[in-house]
């Protein structure tokens, strides 16, 4: 949490009040244009049903709080090693808790809240899908680790040699971990450098007009994901 | 031609499912196999490709009502989502917003992200989630069918639970992390993935129905899934509301479940507490449904 | 992956299919076959991509046998194979033919 406080000092020089309860961050930050909600996780949280419920309640509270007519932007902080792995969480239906969180995030979007995710630390598969990846804009901070699975585990499961995967990863962004790969594929809108003015960059993102999901187009423009956008369009326009 | 009466849903291919679920000869495919939209990423690894990259999308009819249909092929790479596979699903969902079918029928049979193109797969599932939420935002319901050999896991387990109704067979499985993953990471004492009966008591259709996550539990027959679609036309004609009150009500239900089932690790414990009986895991589907209804 | 193509003389197919038809699934020990029109009426084309290397002679024998048993001139069969046995190959091709003959 200490690292996150330093981050909030830098993002919100005008002040912030974010509490941390059981790896869940909730609170507000002050921008030059007013307050924004802050919701997220810290310390590489393994997201279980309890955390997912705290996040979805935080989103619902942010929507309920108003003010009506001018919904405040929501800043998500993603720092997750993925979903919690246990028989209990599976029996309970953890996927349903994640889906509910996603529906709450969409509910906020539909009521006009701008949604921005900052990846600070790790962003891994299921834990990332549940809320961070659903924002209108997704930003990776320096040192952010974004992945589905590390290459050694991937080599074991796919039965493709680790050396071969490492060699292929040099030319293809499609499977290897790394924020840069996700940037090239359009999955991350921006990567901020340490020397930039993060408060100013954040304000640009928070108050930018949110658009439809254009990540596949972005991936095509950046050359890291050449088929996703055109193929979806082909399906849309097929006779 | 692909229609075989009484045929098992689980054993059927994606194309056989599509043919068996829809009115006869009503299916029109979008970007079908002749388009050869295959995965360049599998090809780069020297792995076999499929002409449809493991998913069939198009439109057809259920009792004359037009539906969009998406069917994943669980036998091809575990129904896993890669760039092409995911883009076809997303395109079909976007098209549904434009064409406003009665519903989207989503035959999920997938372990989640295709590891050979993991980043593309993760992004694709995220894009599918947003596209699906947009379909619902347009008022169109999405009905998930889960009865294939791969079930619905990983990101596709989340997608399944985004849907407005979930039709499952007892043989179907629904979850987030597969038992093998949990066993590998947390140890066999946490989850013995080879104990098939346990796997089904934790992830299978019966526990999902008991918890209310599956809207209906049907027998493993294509015709039973088709019949479920016919009744969903009447019981789930529009997308679930996303008003603040509706979302808070779900929040409260899920919170109550997490509190009530704080030590749930086996469906049998749930059935014991509900008084369903020690033989709940062995009851046939009709008997199980009857017992659940009696206790409701 | 290994790929090869055979163009074999064949008796003309009397009722060419209206649209392409896919049969089977690419899974271990199985294959998919896409049936389309295209070649001249007295020719049948097979395009095979297979994960099992070094079996081209077996393929040729199976496909030649298939062509002698069915009027498949004017048709093309594109196959993605994941190590199916010759028996499975024959079975899938037969199933594809059945589906073509059905109304």
Written overview of the protein:
- The complex is a heterotrimer of chains A (239), B (296) and C (103).
- Chain A is globular, with a radius of gyration of 18 Å.
- In chain A, strands 1, 2, 3, 4, 5, 6, 7, 8 and 9 form a nine-stranded mixed sheet that branches.
- In chain A, 44% of the residues lie in helices and 23% in strands.
- Chain A is built from eleven helices and nine strands.
- Chain A has a domain at 2-142 and 192-208: 2-enoyl-CoA Hydratase, Chain A, domain 1.
- Helices cover 44% and strands 12% of the residues of chain B.
- Chain B has twelve helices and seven strands.
- Chain B has a seven-stranded mixed sheet with strand order 1-2-3-4-5-6-7, with helices on both faces.
- The termini of chain B are far apart.
- A five-stranded mixed sheet of chain C has the order 1-4-5-3-2, covered by helices on one side.
- Chains in contact: A-B, B-C.
- The interface between A and B is large, with 71 and 81 residues.
Mean pLDDT of chain A: 95
Tell me the CATH topology of the domain at 2-142 and 192-208 in chain A.
2-enoyl-CoA Hydratase, Chain A, domain 1
Strand order of the largest sheet of chain C: 1-4-5-3-2
How do the helices and strands follow one another from N- to C-terminus of chain A? HEEEEHEHHEHEEHHHEHHH
Proportion in β-strands of chain C: 25-35%
Gap between N and C termini of chain C: 36 Å
Largest interface: A-B, 71 and 81 residues
What is the helix tally of chain A?
11
Unreliable spans of chain C: none
Category from helices, strands and their pairing of chain A: alpha/beta
Fraction of residues in H or I helices of chain A: 40-55%
Write down the CATH class of the domain at 2-142 and 192-208 in chain A: Alpha Beta
């Amino acid at each position: 949490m200490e690292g996150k406080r330093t981050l909030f000092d830098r993002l919100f020089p005008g002040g912030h009040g974010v509490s941390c309860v059981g790896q869940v961050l909730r609170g507000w930050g002050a921008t030059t244009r007013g307050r924004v909600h802050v919701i997220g996780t810290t310390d590489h949280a393994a997201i279980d049903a309890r955390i997912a419920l705290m996040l979805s309640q935080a989103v619902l509270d942010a929507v309920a709080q108003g003010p009506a007519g001018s919904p405040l932007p929501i800043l998500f902080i993603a720092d997750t090693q993925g979903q919690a792995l246990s028989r209990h969480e599976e029996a309970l239906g953890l996927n349903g808790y994640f889906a509910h969180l996603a529906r709450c995030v969409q509910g906020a979007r539909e009521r006009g809240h701008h949604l921005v995710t900052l990846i600070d630390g790790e962003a891994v598969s299921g834990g990332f899908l549940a809320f961070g990846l659903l924002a209108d804009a997704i930003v990776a901070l320096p040192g952010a680790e974004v992945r589905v699975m590390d290459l050694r585990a991937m080599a074991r499961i796919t039965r493709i040699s680790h050396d071969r995967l490492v060699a292929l990863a040099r030319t293809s962004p499609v499977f290897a971990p790394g924020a840069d790969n996700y940037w090239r594929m359009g999955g991350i809108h921006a990567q901020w450098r340490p020397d930039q003015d993060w408060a100013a960059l954040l304000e640009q993102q928070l108050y930018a007009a949110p658009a439809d999901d254009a990540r596949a187009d972005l991936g095509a423009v950046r050359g890291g994901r050449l088929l996703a956008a055109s193929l979806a369009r082909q399906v849309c326009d097929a006779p | 031609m692909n229609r075989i009466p009484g045929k098992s849903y689980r054993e059927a291919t994606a194309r056989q499912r599509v043919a068996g679920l829809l009115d006869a000869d009503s299916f029109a495919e979008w970007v079908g196999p002749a388009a050869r939209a295959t995965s360049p990423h599998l090809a780069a690894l020297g792995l076999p490709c499929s002409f449809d990259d493991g998913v069939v999308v198009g439109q057809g009819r259920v009792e004359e009502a037009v539906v969009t249909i998406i069917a994943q092929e669980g036998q091809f790479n575990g129904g896993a989502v890669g760039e092409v596979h995911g883009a076809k699903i997303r395109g079909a969902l976007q098209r549904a917003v434009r064409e406003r079918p009665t519903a989207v029928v989503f035959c999920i049979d997938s372990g989640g992200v295709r590891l050979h193109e993991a980043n593309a797969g993760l992004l694709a599932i995220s894009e599918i989630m947003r596209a699906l939420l947009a379909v619902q935002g347009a008022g169109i319901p999405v009905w998930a069918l889960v009865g294939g050999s791969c079930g619905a896991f990983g990101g596709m387990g989340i997608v399944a639970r985004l849907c407005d109704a979930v039709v499952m067979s007892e043989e179907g499985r629904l979850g987030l992390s597969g038992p093998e993953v949990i066993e590998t990471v947390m140890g066999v004492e946490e989850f013995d993935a080879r104990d098939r009966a346990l796997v089904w008591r934790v992830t299978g259709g019966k526990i999902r129905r008991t918890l209310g996550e599956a809207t209906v539990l049907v027998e493993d027959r294509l015709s039973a899934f088709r019949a479920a679609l016919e009744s969903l036309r009447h019981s789930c004609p529009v997308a679930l509301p996303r008003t603040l009150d509706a979302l808070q009500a779900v929040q409260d239900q899920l919170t109550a479940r997490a509190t009530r089932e704080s030590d749930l690790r086996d469906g049998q414990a749930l059935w014991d507490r509900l008084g369903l009986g020690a033989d709940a895991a062995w009851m046939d589907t009709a008997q199980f449904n009857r017992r659940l209804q009696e206790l409701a | 992956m290994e790929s090869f193509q055979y163009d074999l003389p064949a008796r003309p197919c009397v009722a060419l299919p209206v649209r392409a038809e896919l049969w089977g699934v690419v899974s271990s020990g199985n294959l998919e076959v896409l049936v389309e029109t295209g070649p001249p009426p007295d020719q049948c084309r097979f395009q095979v991509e297979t994960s099992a290397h070094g079996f081209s002679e077996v393929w040729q024998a199976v496909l030649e046998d298939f062509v002698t048993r069915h009027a498949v001139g004017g048709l093309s069969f594109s196959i993605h194979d994941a190590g199916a046995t010759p028996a499975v190959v024959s079975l899938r091709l037969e199933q594809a033919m059945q589906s073509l003959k059905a109304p």
